[in-house]
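Structural prep section.
Before we set up the soaks we want a predicted structure of the protein with thymidine-5'-diphosphate in place, mainly to decide which crystallisation condition to try first. Input record follows.
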Amino acid sequence: MTGFLLAIEGGDGAGKATTAAEIVALAREAGRSATLLSFPRYADTIGGHVLGDYLAGRLPHAASPRAAAVLYALDRFESAAAIATAAAGHELVVFDRYIASNMAYQAAQVPAGEAAGLMDWIARLEVTQFGLPRPDLSIYLDTPAEVARDLIRRKRQRSYTDATFDAYEADQALQQRVRANYAAMVAGGDALIGRWATLPTISNGALRPPRDIAAAALALVER
Ligand SMILES: Nc1ncnc2c1ncn2[C@@H]1O[C@H](COP(=O)(O)OP(=O)(O)O)[C@@H](O)[C@H]1O
Ligand SMILES: Cc1cn([C@H]2C[C@H](O)[C@@H](COP(=O)(O)OP(=O)(O)O)O2)c(=O)[nH]c1=O
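Run finished without errors. Recording the C-alpha coordinates verbatim:
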Protein backbone atom coordinates (compact mmCIF):
# COMPACT_ATOMS: atom_id res chain seq x y z
CA MET A 1 0.00 0.00 0.00
CA THR A 2 1.37 3.43 -0.83
CA GLY A 3 -0.77 6.04 0.80
CA PHE A 4 -1.91 9.35 -0.64
CA LEU A 5 0.22 12.11 0.90
CA LEU A 6 -1.90 15.12 1.84
CA ALA A 7 -0.21 18.22 3.27
CA ILE A 8 -2.30 20.73 5.24
CA GLU A 9 -0.69 24.14 4.89
CA GLY A 10 -1.34 27.71 6.00
CA GLY A 11 -0.35 30.47 8.39
CA ASP A 12 -0.23 30.19 12.19
CA GLY A 13 -3.71 29.74 13.65
CA ALA A 14 -5.29 28.86 10.28
CA GLY A 15 -6.75 25.69 11.81
CA LYS A 16 -4.28 23.18 10.38
CA ALA A 17 -3.92 20.88 13.42
CA THR A 18 -7.69 20.80 13.96
CA THR A 19 -8.46 20.18 10.30
CA ALA A 20 -5.73 17.55 9.87
CA ALA A 21 -7.00 15.54 12.88
CA GLU A 22 -10.59 15.84 11.65
CA ILE A 23 -9.65 14.62 8.16
CA VAL A 24 -8.05 11.50 9.67
CA ALA A 25 -11.13 10.87 11.85
CA LEU A 26 -13.51 11.33 8.92
CA ALA A 27 -11.47 9.09 6.60
CA ARG A 28 -11.43 6.35 9.26
CA GLU A 29 -15.19 6.62 9.72
CA ALA A 30 -15.50 6.07 5.97
CA GLY A 31 -13.51 2.86 6.34
CA ARG A 32 -10.19 4.20 5.06
CA SER A 33 -6.92 3.70 6.92
CA ALA A 34 -5.46 7.10 7.67
CA THR A 35 -2.75 8.56 9.88
CA LEU A 36 -1.37 11.94 10.90
CA LEU A 37 2.19 13.30 11.07
CA SER A 38 2.77 16.82 12.44
CA PHE A 39 5.91 18.83 11.67
CA PRO A 40 8.04 19.97 13.40
CA ARG A 41 8.27 16.74 15.44
CA TYR A 42 9.55 18.57 18.51
CA ALA A 43 9.86 15.48 20.74
CA ASP A 44 11.00 12.92 18.16
CA THR A 45 14.00 14.31 16.29
CA ILE A 46 17.21 16.23 17.04
CA GLY A 47 16.11 18.85 14.49
CA GLY A 48 12.73 19.18 16.17
CA HIS A 49 14.26 19.53 19.62
CA VAL A 50 16.60 22.32 18.50
CA LEU A 51 13.67 23.99 16.71
CA GLY A 52 11.71 24.08 19.96
CA ASP A 53 14.57 26.04 21.55
CA TYR A 54 14.80 28.26 18.46
CA LEU A 55 11.07 29.13 18.40
CA ALA A 56 11.07 29.86 22.14
CA GLY A 57 14.04 32.25 21.69
CA ARG A 58 16.37 30.06 23.75
CA LEU A 59 19.20 29.87 21.19
CA PRO A 60 22.14 32.24 21.87
CA HIS A 61 22.37 33.38 18.23
CA ALA A 62 19.67 34.16 15.68
CA ALA A 63 19.57 31.58 12.87
CA SER A 64 19.71 32.85 9.27
CA PRO A 65 16.68 31.80 7.15
CA ARG A 66 18.84 29.26 5.31
CA ALA A 67 20.16 27.79 8.59
CA ALA A 68 16.64 27.59 10.03
CA ALA A 69 15.42 25.96 6.79
CA VAL A 70 18.11 23.28 7.14
CA LEU A 71 16.93 22.51 10.70
CA TYR A 72 13.29 22.12 9.59
CA ALA A 73 14.46 19.99 6.66
CA LEU A 74 16.59 17.90 9.05
CA ASP A 75 13.51 17.26 11.20
CA ARG A 76 11.81 15.74 8.12
CA PHE A 77 15.00 13.94 6.96
CA GLU A 78 15.17 12.27 10.39
CA SER A 79 11.49 11.37 9.90
CA ALA A 80 11.97 9.69 6.51
CA ALA A 81 11.45 6.20 7.95
CA ALA A 82 8.34 7.32 9.86
CA ILE A 83 6.94 8.84 6.64
CA ALA A 84 7.70 5.67 4.65
CA THR A 85 6.13 3.44 7.32
CA ALA A 86 3.03 5.65 7.45
CA ALA A 87 2.67 5.58 3.66
CA ALA A 88 3.25 1.83 3.49
CA GLY A 89 0.52 1.07 6.03
CA HIS A 90 -2.20 3.59 5.21
CA GLU A 91 -4.34 4.76 2.32
CA LEU A 92 -4.08 8.36 3.49
CA VAL A 93 -1.22 10.13 5.28
CA VAL A 94 -2.03 13.66 6.45
CA PHE A 95 0.81 16.07 7.22
CA ASP A 96 0.13 19.01 9.55
CA ARG A 97 2.69 21.23 7.79
CA TYR A 98 5.27 19.89 5.36
CA ILE A 99 7.96 21.16 3.00
CA ALA A 100 5.88 24.12 1.75
CA SER A 101 5.81 25.54 5.31
CA ASN A 102 9.58 25.81 5.19
CA MET A 103 9.42 27.54 1.82
CA ALA A 104 6.69 29.99 2.88
CA TYR A 105 8.15 30.91 6.29
CA GLN A 106 11.87 31.08 5.55
CA ALA A 107 11.35 32.96 2.27
CA ALA A 108 9.30 35.47 4.29
CA GLN A 109 12.49 36.43 6.11
CA VAL A 110 14.64 37.47 3.16
CA PRO A 111 14.27 40.56 0.90
CA ALA A 112 11.31 40.14 -1.50
CA GLY A 113 13.64 39.78 -4.49
CA GLU A 114 15.29 36.72 -2.94
CA ALA A 115 12.11 34.90 -1.87
CA ALA A 116 11.51 32.86 -5.05
CA GLY A 117 15.15 31.74 -5.15
CA LEU A 118 15.08 30.60 -1.52
CA MET A 119 11.80 28.71 -2.02
CA ASP A 120 13.37 26.89 -4.95
CA TRP A 121 16.52 26.14 -2.90
CA ILE A 122 14.46 24.66 -0.04
CA ALA A 123 12.36 22.50 -2.39
CA ARG A 124 15.54 21.11 -3.97
CA LEU A 125 17.19 20.56 -0.57
CA GLU A 126 14.26 18.54 0.77
CA VAL A 127 13.11 16.71 -2.36
CA THR A 128 16.29 16.26 -4.42
CA GLN A 129 19.02 16.13 -1.76
CA PHE A 130 17.11 14.61 1.15
CA GLY A 131 14.88 12.45 -1.05
CA LEU A 132 11.69 13.34 0.81
CA PRO A 133 8.48 12.49 -1.06
CA ARG A 134 6.51 15.29 -2.71
CA PRO A 135 2.95 15.45 -1.36
CA ASP A 136 0.27 14.28 -3.78
CA LEU A 137 -1.78 17.33 -2.78
CA SER A 138 -1.19 20.38 -0.58
CA ILE A 139 -4.25 22.19 0.73
CA TYR A 140 -3.83 25.83 1.69
CA LEU A 141 -6.22 26.73 4.50
CA ASP A 142 -7.31 30.26 3.74
CA THR A 143 -8.15 31.91 7.08
CA PRO A 144 -8.29 35.73 7.35
CA ALA A 145 -5.42 37.20 9.41
CA GLU A 146 -7.69 38.62 12.17
CA VAL A 147 -9.45 35.29 12.62
CA ALA A 148 -6.14 33.38 12.71
CA ARG A 149 -4.80 35.71 15.39
CA ASP A 150 -7.87 35.07 17.48
CA LEU A 151 -7.48 31.31 17.06
CA ILE A 152 -3.82 31.42 18.15
CA ARG A 153 -5.01 32.91 21.46
CA ARG A 154 -7.24 29.86 21.93
CA LYS A 155 -4.44 27.35 21.31
CA ARG A 156 -3.57 24.85 23.93
CA GLN A 157 -0.28 25.07 25.83
CA ARG A 158 2.71 24.18 23.70
CA SER A 159 5.62 21.98 24.71
CA TYR A 160 8.38 24.46 23.90
CA THR A 161 7.09 27.85 25.11
CA ASP A 162 4.78 29.45 27.69
CA ALA A 163 4.23 32.52 25.51
CA THR A 164 0.86 33.02 23.78
CA PHE A 165 2.57 33.90 20.48
CA ASP A 166 5.86 32.27 19.50
CA ALA A 167 8.57 34.23 17.65
CA TYR A 168 6.91 33.83 14.23
CA GLU A 169 3.31 34.25 15.39
CA ALA A 170 4.09 37.58 17.07
CA ASP A 171 5.25 39.18 13.81
CA GLN A 172 2.21 40.35 11.77
CA ALA A 173 4.24 41.69 8.82
CA LEU A 174 5.95 38.31 8.60
CA GLN A 175 2.56 36.55 8.61
CA GLN A 176 1.52 38.73 5.65
CA ARG A 177 4.65 37.73 3.68
CA VAL A 178 3.97 34.09 4.56
CA ARG A 179 0.50 34.44 3.02
CA ALA A 180 1.98 35.99 -0.12
CA ASN A 181 4.49 33.14 -0.47
CA TYR A 182 1.73 30.54 -0.15
CA ALA A 183 -0.29 32.47 -2.75
CA ALA A 184 2.71 32.31 -5.11
CA MET A 185 3.01 28.54 -4.61
CA VAL A 186 -0.73 27.98 -5.17
CA ALA A 187 -0.62 30.16 -8.30
CA GLY A 188 2.51 28.41 -9.56
CA GLY A 189 0.76 25.04 -9.57
CA ASP A 190 2.82 21.90 -9.21
CA ALA A 191 6.11 23.38 -10.40
CA LEU A 192 7.98 23.07 -7.08
CA ILE A 193 6.20 20.94 -4.59
CA GLY A 194 3.25 19.20 -6.26
CA ARG A 195 -0.43 19.97 -6.72
CA TRP A 196 -2.23 22.71 -4.75
CA ALA A 197 -5.78 23.54 -3.74
CA THR A 198 -7.12 26.43 -1.63
CA LEU A 199 -9.77 25.77 1.01
CA PRO A 200 -11.54 28.77 2.62
CA THR A 201 -12.28 28.19 6.31
CA ILE A 202 -14.78 31.06 6.52
CA SER A 203 -18.30 31.02 5.16
CA ASN A 204 -20.70 34.01 5.38
CA GLY A 205 -18.27 35.71 7.75
CA ALA A 206 -18.14 32.81 10.23
CA LEU A 207 -15.69 29.96 10.76
CA ARG A 208 -16.95 26.73 9.25
CA PRO A 209 -17.18 23.78 11.66
CA PRO A 210 -14.01 21.61 11.55
CA ARG A 211 -16.08 18.67 10.20
CA ASP A 212 -17.21 20.69 7.17
CA ILE A 213 -13.69 21.87 6.42
CA ALA A 214 -12.39 18.29 6.72
CA ALA A 215 -15.17 16.96 4.48
CA ALA A 216 -14.30 19.58 1.85
CA ALA A 217 -10.63 18.56 2.10
CA LEU A 218 -11.50 14.89 1.60
CA ALA A 219 -13.62 15.81 -1.41
CA LEU A 220 -10.53 17.48 -2.90
CA VAL A 221 -8.53 14.29 -2.26
CA GLU A 222 -11.19 12.18 -4.00
CA ARG A 223 -11.15 14.53 -6.97
N1 LIG B 1 -13.00 25.48 12.27
C1 LIG B 1 -12.78 25.84 13.53
N2 LIG B 1 -13.80 26.27 14.29
C2 LIG B 1 -13.60 26.64 15.60
N3 LIG B 1 -12.41 26.63 16.23
C3 LIG B 1 -11.34 26.20 15.53
C4 LIG B 1 -11.46 25.79 14.14
N4 LIG B 1 -10.24 25.43 13.71
C5 LIG B 1 -9.40 25.61 14.74
N5 LIG B 1 -10.06 26.05 15.86
C6 LIG B 1 -9.44 26.37 17.17
O1 LIG B 1 -8.46 27.38 16.94
C7 LIG B 1 -7.27 27.12 17.65
C8 LIG B 1 -6.07 27.03 16.67
O2 LIG B 1 -6.31 25.97 15.77
P1 LIG B 1 -5.14 25.00 15.27
O3 LIG B 1 -5.82 23.89 14.52
O4 LIG B 1 -4.24 24.63 16.39
O5 LIG B 1 -4.37 25.97 14.22
P2 LIG B 1 -2.95 25.81 13.51
O6 LIG B 1 -2.54 24.36 13.61
O7 LIG B 1 -3.20 26.23 12.08
O8 LIG B 1 -2.01 26.76 14.17
C9 LIG B 1 -7.51 25.83 18.44
O9 LIG B 1 -7.85 26.19 19.76
C10 LIG B 1 -8.68 25.18 17.73
O10 LIG B 1 -9.48 24.44 18.62
C1 LIG C 1 7.20 22.60 9.58
C2 LIG C 1 7.79 23.97 9.44
C3 LIG C 1 7.34 25.01 10.25
N1 LIG C 1 7.89 26.25 10.13
C4 LIG C 1 7.44 27.32 11.07
C5 LIG C 1 5.99 27.69 10.98
C6 LIG C 1 5.59 28.04 12.39
O1 LIG C 1 5.65 29.45 12.58
C7 LIG C 1 6.64 27.40 13.26
C8 LIG C 1 6.09 26.35 14.22
O2 LIG C 1 5.26 25.42 13.56
P1 LIG C 1 3.76 25.17 14.06
O3 LIG C 1 3.21 24.06 13.30
O4 LIG C 1 2.99 26.44 13.99
O5 LIG C 1 3.97 24.69 15.54
P2 LIG C 1 3.05 25.05 16.81
O6 LIG C 1 1.62 24.83 16.39
O7 LIG C 1 3.55 24.10 17.84
O8 LIG C 1 3.35 26.50 17.10
O9 LIG C 1 7.61 26.83 12.39
C9 LIG C 1 8.91 26.51 9.21
O10 LIG C 1 9.43 27.63 9.10
N2 LIG C 1 9.38 25.48 8.41
C10 LIG C 1 8.85 24.22 8.49
O11 LIG C 1 9.29 23.31 7.76
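Observations: The mean pLDDT is 93.
Flagged for discussion at group meeting.
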